[in-house]
Amino acid sequence: SCRLEIILKTNQIQLNLSLAVSVGMLLAVFAVSSALADMPVRLTQTYHLQHSMSKSYLIQGYVGKRDDKRNTEAQPMEGVNDENYKWILVHSAPGIGNGYNYLVNMKTGLALTQDSVGDANVSNWGVEKRDPEHDKRQHWRTQVVGRDLQSGQSIWKLTNEATGKALTQHGFGRDAGYPNVHVWDANVPLTDRSFQWIAKDAGKMDLC
Questions:
Q1: pLDDT, tens digit, 9 for 90 and up, residues 150-164
Q2: Is 67 left (phi over 0), alpha (psi -120 to 50) or beta?
Q3: How far is CA 3 from the centre of its chain?
């Protein structure tokens, strides 16, 4: 694991700096390293987020390859292993279960962000903790509102903290030919499929 590599590199530097390391200390280091090697790797759950109406999946536009084109879209699945289709949840307040999360794209490492309070568009940007107002535009309340009968996966409603508006696809997902993703309406019923996303299991990954 990467934690083990860091520990071993640190121990090697210490050995190079000091010739007085005893055999007992070396044995202790190897014993700890061996124990750490046997520890299970902490894996992070990833998700494919499929719009309930259009059946298209949340991605960063331009296949996540252009830094100047960070717009988010809902597109048909190109490949289950494409990391542009994978997202992880990161608690917006570590250690506090306040219901808000960052939604981070696995390919780009950027977080889903409402462009501004007065703009419904949604793009991907780096996590910003220095500006509280900008930070709230990256916080999404993740509510489980049901279960998809076909896949058995949870259905989410995603609501932006800064505006209270819910994530949807252009035209409420009724036409897959309009892929742009944005927020709309502050008071959306939990049962409205236009604002529902099926959170499909995309596997677990070692993000260490």
A1: 889 999 999 999 999
A2: alpha
A3: 22
CB atoms under 10 Å from CB of 123, counted, come to: 19
> Which residues touch 69 (CB under 8 Å, ≥6 apart)?
61, 62
Cα-flanking dihedrals φ and ψ of residue 187, to 5°?
Answer: -120, 80
Q: Report DSSP state, residue 85.
A: G
Write out the H or E segment, with its range, that includes residue 37. helix 23-37
Q: Which of 38-47, 103-112, 159-168 has the lowest average pLDDT?
A: 38-47
| Cβ(176)–Cβ(56) below 8 Å | yes
CB atoms within 10 A of CB 166: 24
CA angle 128, 130, 133 (to 5 degrees): 75
Please state, in angstroms and rounded to a whole number, the distance separating the CA atoms of residues 101 and 125. 14
Nearest to 47 by CA among 199, 208, 206, 207: 199
CA nearest neighbour of 50 among 198, 201, 202: 198
